[in-house]
Amino acid sequence: MKKRFLTLTLAVTMSLVIGLTGCSSNSGSKTSSENKKVEYSKNIPEKIATDKDGVKIMVIRKIGGDDHTAQFLAGAKQEGTAMGFTVDTFSANGDTAKFHDAISQAIEKGYDGVIISHGDDEATVNDVKKLTEKGIKVVTFDSNAGIANVQGVTMTSQDDELLAKLALDELKKVTAGQGNLAYLWVDGFPPMVSRNKVYQQFLKDNTGIKEVDRFGVAAADTSVQTQNAVSAMLTKYPKGKLNAVFATWDAFAIGAARAVKEANRDDIKIVGIDVSNADLQIMQEENSPWVATAAVDPKLIGAVDLRILAKKIAGEETPATYKLEASLITQEQLKKAGKAVNMESLSEIVPGWGKSDAFQEAWMTELKGLFKK
What residues contact 264, with CB distance under 8 A and at least 6 apart? Predict the structure, then answer.
């Protein structure tokens, strides 16, 4: 009898709890990773507050093996985790089959949202269609332009035209608008196509600078292959015959810098695009040929993409496209700092670096406060 009474009491209590929870359309609770119960206020979007399993996000990047990729993935994961989301990341390291397989798995595992980076082929467009048909929200970065035809998707990118312009303007400055140039570039990726358009116009406008050689491959060992290729170039062009290298990706610039230093060629200046801790270290080495790079903080890119995706999951309006503003980082700026500069301290010498309140909503700030460790 006593056992039956306890059972009935428990059932009534549970019914009351469920009933009370159902009365508030914009509130709920979740247990954090530290087993701390978190109570949501009415400010938290209903679709997030009432998700019993918690928001689950997958970040999938086709290219990899570089610090830029690691920073991008870390930025997305850190931003999502701070809001109490589960964020899984995957880099295919340039393997197309693994990249598409990861997207298929994301569909099967029922993620709430997916961020796709560098999905350059037509198959990615079909993948995105499948994701949206399943009700999974999607944000892409530097991916196939055809994705623009899939409704509800936001396509993000760096301002690649500005990146190329900043880099090439600096290259013109360090060469005084005269000299022979090696071009490190690879076709097939939307950002590379955009950068190449600016480069081609630059050559037309600056006839004193001439391209004499080029190389480019996107692989897990891009830096190594580039180093070997540039080393071979240096044997073809003795001192005075090659004055600069324009590297449209920091993986190219890393390989080029190693080759130039090993050959003791102090007559060649390298200007690149993108930045990472490894890049900054090389730029700050004594007699480094890498004199400038144009970049957007890759960690910030990941964070902003995550915020856009969170807004989609919350049912809020988001734009079809978004470009992140670029900055120029010079070796001269780094030297003036008077200390070793890394990605964390770069903001001290480059105004606004790594900071953006783009798509940062009040409810996101509230979530971060609730899940703060």
Answer: none
Q: Does pLDDT of 42 surpass 70?
A: yes
Distances (CA, A) of 289 to 77, 239, 263, 293, 335: 34, 14, 11, 12, 14
| Residue range 70-80, pLDDT digits in tens | 999 999 999 99
User: 3-state DSSP call for residue 110?
Assistant: coil
Domain residues for the domain of 240 are 161-295
Provide the 3-class DSSP secondary structure of residue 94: coil
Residue 120 DSSP symbol: -
Tell whether 320 is covered by a domain: yes
Q: What is the CATH number of the domain that holds 191?
A: 3.40.50.2300
Predicted TM-score (pTM) of this structure: 0.80
**Same structural domain for residues 249 and 182?**
yes
Sole residue written with tokens 């390291």: 93
Q: How confident is the model at residue 304 (pLDDT cuts 50, 70, 90)?
A: very high
Domains held by the chain: number: 2
CA angle 225, 120, 104 (to 5 degrees): 110
Q: Report the chain's terminal Cα–Cα distance, integer Å.
A: 46
Closest CA to 341 of 253, 271, 275, 287: 275
Residues 233 and 172 in one domain: yes
Q: Is residue 20 part of a domain?
A: no
Q: Provide the pairing of β-strand 290-295 with 327-330.
A: antiparallel
The type of residue at 45 is P
Buried b (16+ CB within 10 A) or exposed e, 143-160: bbeebeebeebbbbbbbb
Verify that 139 and 182 share a domain, yes or no.
Answer: no
Q: How far, in Å, CA of 329 to CA of 137, rounded?
A: 35
Summarised one tens digit per residue, pLDDT across range 199-236 is 999 999 999 999 999 999 988 899 999 999 999 999 99
Distance CA 126, CA 120 (A): 12
Residues 200, 290 within the same domain: yes
Locus of tokens 């039956």 = 4
Nearest to 327 by CA among 193, 165, 190, 154: 165
Label residue 231 left, alpha or beta by phi (over 0 means left) and psi (-120 to 50 means alpha): alpha
31 domain residue, yes or no: no
